Structure formats: C-alpha cells, structure tokens
Amino acid sequence: MISLKFFGGIQEIGGNKILLEEKNTSIFLDFGMGFREYGHYFEEYLKPRTANGFGDYLELGLIPWIDGVYRKDLLNIQGVESHEVPAVDGVLLSHMHLDHAAFVSFLDHRIPVYCSRPSGAIAQALTECGQRSLHTEIYDFKERPLLSSTCSPTGRKFNFMNPEEEYTIGDVQVKAFSVDHSIPGSFAYLIRAPGGTCPLHRGSEASWNPRRYGEAFHRRNEW
Ligand SMILES: [Zn+2]
C-alpha cells in the first residue's frame, strides 16, 4: 500500500515535497521551494550565504533534514558524512515552477529526475541562460565550495516521459497526462501500485483547466 509523507506544500501554495513509498520504492513528488517561508528571511538583495552551502536553508527550516538524499559536496560543508547510495529512487516533477522544482538543486545527482521533455529544457535554460545560483541548479550544478567559476558542472540524470505512456519506477507504475498550467510541459501523474492504490499527483492548483484535469482524474479508474 502506498504511503505519503509531506515535507512541504501543506497550507501553503507550492513548496511541495511529498515522499511516496511503496514496498522498496521511494519517490519524491516534486521538491520545491516554499516561497512564503523563504520570504520571511530573504528578499531581492538579501540572500542565503553562498559560502555556507545549504546550511542557511537547513537552519531556517526552508528545507527538511532527510537522510540519504542530499548532495555530497553540500553535506561535506555541513560536516556530515555522506551516504553511499541515495535513499530514494527518483523525483517526479509536475512542472518546472520553482515552488515545485527548485530544491532538486540540493538533491544527490544520482537520484533520477522524471518529467516532461519541455520541463527538462526549461531546467537546462535556467542554468545555461540565467544567473546560476544554489537553488536554480536543477539541470546540473557546480560543486561547492565554488573554487573556480569555470569548473565543469555535474549533470543530473533526466528521464523524459511522454504523455499517456506507462513507466515503471521500482514497485510503482506511472502514467503522465498533459495538463494546462502557466508553464509549458506540465504533467499530472496517475500512480499505481500492486495494492491498487492510485493517487493523482497534479502539482499546482491555480489555473488548471478543469476539463483537462477532469479527464485525467476520471481516467484513473480506467487504468
Ligand atoms: Zn506552478
């Protein structure tokens, strides 16, 4: 039976970080930034200290402490010994808005990212065309401490999913549905486990097209 743990996204818009567990499989459903909590401490000219890795985010409760999921270089800055193997099997991204995807930047690069191809292209554009910062390095990242700005980035493994095709991640089956939202490549996911449980992961609430979302919701029973 599928279980869900919520590390964010409750009584707030965005900040979704949901851990789905089924038998021996663990998958994050989104891993985003909580804008409201971030805004309590930071604004345009006041940022987390870059030399402290993700220490300020941890200390202020902007990200949860979860064993076995974060980058080795960031753990080293905190004086924490890193794990040998990541504790989760993947992160399933609904779309590339930062309140759903930003903190993938902190995850161990060996954890594969599942999303639409347009979402992957947006993540790539963020790092290649925008100003690289610690929490916008979703597509790839430069290890900290950053000794040289010209060092090569470490890439993540992206698995692009097509709408209405079925994929297996460990003990669960996943099917993506294209849905309307204010960014290209947004997906809702039907997730099926041997016990027959079938949650629907849909990402943002705002501006969903009710008809398109309704199609995915009703078709969960057909699958
Ligand atoms: Zn959104």
Provide key terms for this protein.
single chain, 223 residues, alpha/beta, Metallo-beta-lactamase, Chain A, six-stranded mixed sheet, four-stranded antiparallel sheet, 6 helices, 12 strands, globular, binds zinc ion
Would you write up a description of this structure?
The structure is a single chain. The chain is built from 6 helices and 12 strands. It has 223 residues and is of the alpha/beta class. The protein has a single domain (3-161), classed as Ribonuclease Z/Hydroxyacylglutathione hydrolase-like (Metallo-beta-lactamase, Chain A, 4-Layer Sandwich). The strands form 3 sheets. The chain has a 6-stranded mixed sheet with strand order 1-2-3-4-5-8. A 4-stranded antiparallel sheet has the order 9-10-11-12. Strands 6-7 form a two-stranded antiparallel ribbon. Strand 4, helix 4 and strand 5 form a beta-alpha-beta unit. The longest helix is centred in the middle third of the chain and has 13 residues, at 117-129. It is globular. The model has no long low-confidence stretch (mean pLDDT 89). Zinc ion is lined by residues 95, 97, 100, 181, 204.
